[in-house]
Design a protein that fits this description.
With 80 residues, this protein is mainly alpha-helical. It has one domain. It contains three helices and no strands. It is flat and about 55 Å long. The two termini are 34 Å apart.
Length: 80
């Protein structure tokens, strides 16, 4: 069986995505640790999760807008 040539791969890592969530990774690590250990999610922790969710929603909305604008610009130039 042959390996896929690197230039033919359709899935790539996305460093940009990693950068978008790197600052909240410790919170999700803590969430995993609590769930894994069966520890309760107290009100202050849930509040942090909710605040983080709001920040991530805002970030991803901006990413979607930027990517949509790039696609539209490419379509207008006849790239797609």
């Amino acid at each position: 069986m042959a390996a896929v040539k690197p230039d033919l791969r359709t899935q790539r890592t996305n460093d940009e995505t990693d950068e978008l969530v790197a600052d909240v990774a410790p919170l999700f690590d803590e969430l995993y640790a609590r769930v894994d250990a069966g520890r309760p999610l107290d009100a202050p922790f849930v509040q942090k999760l909710n605040e983080t969710n709001e920040r991530l929603v805002q970030r991803w909305e901006e990413v979607v807008k930027e990517r949509l604008a790039a696609v539209r610009a490419g379509v207008e130039r006849g790239e797609r």
